[in-house]
Every structure is written in structure tokens, then in C-alpha cells.
Amino acid sequence: MPLTLIALAGFYAPDRAAVRYADALAQALHANLVLLHVNRAALVDPYELLDESYRRDELVLQADTVSALRRVAGRLRTPATVELSTDLLPAVAQDLAERYGPALFVLGQPAEEAAASIVPACVELLRAGQYPLLLVPAAAPAAVPQCFLVAADAEPFALSNEAQAWRPLLSRLGAEVLVAHVSAEGEDSAACAAALRAVQASGLLQGLPAPELRGYSQPQASCGILAAVQETQADVLILLARERSYLSELFHRSVTAQVLKHTPVPVLLLPVE
Predict the structure, then answer these.
(1) Strands (E) located in 75-152
(2) Rg, the chain, Cα only
(3) Quick one: how far is CA 258 from the chain centroid?
(4) What is the Cα–Cα distance from 238 to 150, expressed in whole angstroms?
(5) How far apart are CA 103 and CA 238, in angstroms?
(6) 106 with 33: CB under 8 angstroms?
(7) Hey, what domains does the chain have and what are their CATH numbers?
(8) Residues 6+ apart with CB under 8 A from 3
(9) What would the pLDDT profile of 102-115 be if each residue is shown by its tens digit?
(10) How far is CA 183 from CA 180, 201, 225, 251, 264, in A?
(11) For residue 84, what are the contacts with CB-CB under 8 A and spacing of at least 6?
């Protein structure tokens, strides 16, 4: 079954960056591409207690948006389908994932000052559904990645069903894969070795050569991960999305939040168990 990239599409810089990157990646993977436009993201349908005609009226008012997105799609190298929804709801995300699965959602990382961006809400909703996410900084070049860096700790993990479907991505691209472990309490070779063992045991790198392991001693995990990205010149950073590190804090206090805030490269969030 072909893979599908679902890019959150719009007309501002973060959305355009996500679409450009998704286009380049889809072409390299021979994947399908969907441009998705939503006005809001919520766990509860705002039209739930209203007549369905209100939702239809809102969609009718967006006819110009659909036309503009189709023109965007026509300029891409990968044939793209346009999807429009008033709200990104859990049921909408599930429907998209089922119709286009296995699916990877691609979102542009908004600027810090973009308080009106719906991306944080979209990320939180999609994270709750355990869907793999790729967040793309606006300055990231739309080039096929040649080096992936997996940030791992020493704790064993298993890929979720959704992440399992995207495991072949690495082998299809033929990219180099490195594993980085950050220690907050000085050099710890045993923890580094355990981190590599956890990645290999998960099956994430199945069929690929044994990856190079890099250890970093840094009191702040986020700083150590960003230093690893810089030193290795990785094109994509892979973060293991354990539920306890998210909750409602994705863009606020977690290590993931700090990495996303400062990363110069796209970040692939893989849900793990």
C-alpha cells in the first residue's frame, strides 16, 4: 500500500514550507500527497448542537480557498488531492488516516510570535490519536533528507501500529541513520549502549546497517539534542513521542517543546509505546 503525506495547507509561510517539503518527500518516496485545509482544531465539534446546514454554509464560503489550494496543487511536482474541513476533529483525523493510510501528517512549525496559529492545537489533537507527525521549520530547505538522527534514551520502547507503517521510510530513502543519547549527569557509556539497544530492539532500523552511536553530556536534554543535530548535520531529527512527555504541554515546558522551538531541521515525532 502506498504511503500518504497529509500536509496542513494554507497561504502563510509555515504552511507553504510544509507543502514544499511534503512535495519533495512524496516525490522521493513515490507517496501520495494530500493538501488539508482546516479553520480550527478541537476535541469537540463546534457544530454538534447546531443544524448541519451551518457547517455547509461555512464550507460554501470557502470556495475561493479551495480554488486557490487547487492552483497550489497544480504547481507541485507530486499530484495532490485537496481536502477541506471546517474543523480538525478526532473523527476527521481518523477518517483521513483510514482513507489515506498509512499516513504521515506534515505541519509547518509556526513562528513563536504567531499566537493565532492553529498548529499547536492540531499537533496536540493528532498526538492524542497516535499519528506520526513531521513538523517543518519555515527555513528548512525542501530537499530529500540524507541523514536522520534518532534521539533516544535508555528506556525500551515499541513502535505504535501507526509508526510501524512508516518504518520503511528510512530504507526507501536510503538515508544514513545516527543514534544520539544525551546524558544529564556526565558521560555514561552504559546508558549510550542501552539507548542504541532500545532503538535496534524496536525494529525502527530493521534492514538498515547498524547506526553510529553518539553520546552527549549536557545538563539540559533539549540543548544536547540540538547540539547533536548541529554536529551530525542531520537533515531530520526523530523524536520518540512517549505520551507522558506530551499531555497538554507540547509547546510549553517539555523537552520536545524546547527542541521544536529551536530546531533548524524538520522533526519527525514517532508515537511509541
Answers:
(1) 80-88, 103-109, 133-137, 147-151
(2) 19
(3) 15
(4) 5
(5) 17
(6) no
(7) 4-137 (3.40.50.620), 147-271 (3.40.50.620)
(8) 29, 31, 32, 102, 103, 104, 165, 166, 169
(9) 889 999 987 665 55
(10) 10, 21, 10, 23, 22
(11) 36, 37, 38, 59, 62, 65, 66, 69
Residue 240 cell numbers, joined: 520518540
Q: Which whole-number Å values give the CA distances from 126 to 122, 158, 270, in the listed order? A: 6, 19, 11
Q: What is the DSSP string of 169-213?
A: HHHHHT-EEEEEEEETTS--HHHHHHHHHHHHHHTTTTTSPPPEE
- Per-residue pLDDT tens over the stretch 151-208: 998 889 998 888 888 888 888 898 899 999 998 777 888 999 999 999 999 999 988 8
> How far apart, in whole angstroms, are the C-alpha atoms of residue 191 and residue 193?
5
The secondary structure element, H or E, covering residue 217 is: strand 212-217
Phi, psi of 183 (to 5 degrees): -110, 130
Those residues with Cβ within 8 angstroms of residue 151's Cβ, 6 or more apart along the chain or in another chain:
180, 181, 182, 225, 228, 237, 238, 239, 240, 259
With cell 551530525, the residue in question is 232
pTM of the model: 0.89
| Secondary structure (3-state) at 128 | helix
**Type of residue numbered 87:** D
Exposed, middle or buried, 154 (CB in 10 Å: 0-12/13-18/19+)? Answer: middle
